[in-house]
């Protein structure tokens, strides 16, 4: 039996009033109801990170998140990062550093990297930086790997992905 609820979401700057089944994930809402297919369905178990979006500025695995639980939230997907024809700095860095191969994980990697840098700048610790007292903590390769561990790339483009993220981090501090 289907139970619909009314929710409002602002997705990529556009307000949406929707009636959704209470079992609908945010990922399925984006892809199947709103046809925003940039966010990928990888494992559908929250293990690969391909479905990462920004929810109220924080990175979220949309395959594990029920849409109905986010009434009045703001969602940014890969489609919403480009402004007035200009790529987001993270998107541009991925292009410049060739941070993709097949590209399937790229939207989730980019959204996660943006959210991760916000966390890093706010001084959120990682397992690597738990003992450090710097603010923001130094983003060294081990720390970056730890912070991005939930986003998998089956093509192993990690060196280029990491170079792109470090480049953005360096230019945004």
From TrEMBL:
Keywords: Iron, Metal-binding, Oxidoreductase. InterPro entries: 2Fe-2S-bd, 2Fe-2S-bd_dom_sf, 2Fe-2S_ferredoxin-like_sf, 2Fe-2S_ferredoxin-type, 2Fe2S_fd_BS, Aldehyde_Oxdr_Iron-Sulfur, Beta-grasp_dom_sf. It comes from the Bacteria. Residues 5-81 form the 2Fe-2S ferredoxin-type domain. PANTHER family: OXIDOREDUCTASE, IRON-SULPHUR BINDING SUBUNIT-RELATED-RELATED. This is Aldehyde dehydrogenase iron-sulfur subunit.
């Amino acid at each position: 039996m289907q139970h619909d609820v009314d929710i409002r979401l602002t997705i990529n700057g556009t307000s949406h009033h929707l009636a959704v089944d209470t079992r609908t994930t945010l990922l399925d809402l984006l892809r199947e109801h709103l046809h925003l297919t940039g966010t990928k369905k990888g494992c559908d178990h929250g293990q690969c990170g391909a479905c990462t979006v920004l929810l109220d500025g924080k990175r979220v695995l949309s395959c594990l998140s029920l849409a109905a639980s986010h009434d009045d939230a703001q969602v940014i997907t890969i489609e919403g990062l480009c402004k007035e024809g200009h790529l987001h700095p993270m998107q541009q860095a991925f292009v410049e550093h060739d941070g993709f191969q097949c590209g399937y994980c790229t939207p989730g990697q980019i959204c996660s990297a943006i959210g991760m840098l916000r966390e890093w700048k706010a001084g959120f610790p990682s397992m690597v930086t738990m003992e450090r007292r710097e603010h923001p903590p130094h983003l060294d390769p081990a720390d970056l790997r730890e912070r991005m561990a939930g986003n998998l790339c089956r093509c192993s483009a990690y060196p280029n992905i990491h170079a792109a993220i470090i480049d953005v981090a360096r230019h945004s501090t």
